Give the backbone structure.
Amino acid sequence: MVTPELSIPQALISSLSGVPGFEESSFLAVHKQGPLVTSVRLNPAKVWDETEDEKEMFAPDIALAVVPWCATGYYLSSRPSFITDPSWHAGLYYVQEASSMFVEQAFRQHVSEVHAPVVLDACAAPGGKSTHLQTLIGSDGLLVSNEVIRNRVGILAENMQRWGGQNVVVTSADPKDFHRLPGFFDVVLVDAPCSGSGLFRRDPEAIREWSPSLVELCSARQQRILSDLWGTLKDGGVLMYATCSYSPEEDEDILDWLMTSFEVETLKINLDPNWGVVDVRSAQSGAYGYRFYPNLIEGEGLFLCCLRKKGGHTTGHGHSSGSGHTYDGGQGKNVKGSVHKGKNGLVSLSKNDLASVLPWVKNANDYHFTQHENTVYALPVNKVEEVSRIQETFYVRQAGIALGQLMRSELVPDAAFALSRLPGEAVQRLELSREQALDYVRRDELHIDGVPKGWALVTYHGHGIGWVKVLAGRINNYYPKNWRVLKR
Ligand code: SAM
């Protein structure tokens, strides 16, 4: 909430005068006393309980209302403690701002006819839109979730692991590195770093940091990112561009610049008039863009537009990649990965190692098993070609599902494996109550009698959270130390 001491910058208000949908008084009012909205997106790959209403995973005093533009999105009437909810740890839902879920409309209306789409989320951390895209592409597609800032890749990888999709590659490349994969992607989403005015209600820090010069800097950076990524989009592919800024310099001006700099076709997204989304068709280029204002919808500020690439030709107005391209807190050059060398760039398992791994995995024939830095990964066989292309090209943080490490031919299973759909029938399960599951994620000792010795997949309502190893008289908790919940 914006406090009286921290008011919306007058320079922003002035710059928005005349922008379609902007109503100064109600905009200011919603920043002063509007309710803060909490919303979640459910993971359809992890259904709560087939016999119950999935909304019952939240406490009975929390009412759910649908987010109209997203089939799996819900507003919650109050904000629960997500960190002490085992369902959150099992990846049954992602806490996401509702406006951002509009990416679903762009996808459904313009990509759904593409079979097995190869999708790049170029600015992906912490993973809100990537988890959503993973749902939308289905099991046949491939998602590359990329985040250039190295210290933000960890949270992205963690969120993608919780979501559990096996058709995801997490990379940390600079946008300009993608020129090495020309015409590779059917869809490129650029959820661009921006001046952040759309987040003023929830993040007072964004107000302190905002200035007209930041808007200018972001606008130039957005153009660089888009120019750098243009070549990696296939002809006929779809570019989605989004910001959480209200400034036209980062929204409509970028859209107009795209329309004049590249061979593109604007794509209209059909809206239900009840949604309150503002259609801001550009007077200059005729291109379609969509604005979200918190005084008109239940959600935060967002701009989104969608374009189809007509051909690879640029008119030369685009910024060149490279010189002066800095990203805040530059992380140095991405290195070409030493990942998975060997045939197809992937390291295959020895016969013995494979024999140790196969009994753990459901439908093992559907996967190709590779090894990187002692960790065994499972990749869908029909994605091996694309993944090896990516791994040959730049640093890959994770590809497919990390199954675990082989220690003297024994698999020490990885948390990512627990969170995926890959553990097979032969794997012992240990279903926990809510309290036990919370003890587990706090890395407390579990006291449960009668569990057979060996590895067990810890589950909550049937969904994996992690692993324990049952010994005589003791259960060792293998929940990752860096995921440990401290809150009691
Ligand atoms: N898509 C994310 C989601 O839905 O959770 C949010 C992305 S956020 C708006 C923009 C991201 O761009 C940040 O993670 C930021 O680290 C990254 N970024 C910053 N500078 C960048 C640059 N020069 N090129 C590409 N990405 C950059």
Notes: The CA atoms of residues 82 and 88 lie 6 Å apart. The pocket of S-adenosylmethionine is lined by residues 100, 123-129, 147-149, 152, 175, 191, 193, 221, 225, 327-328 (CB under 6 Å). Confidence is low (pLDDT under 50) at residues 312-341. The first helix runs from residue 10 to 16.
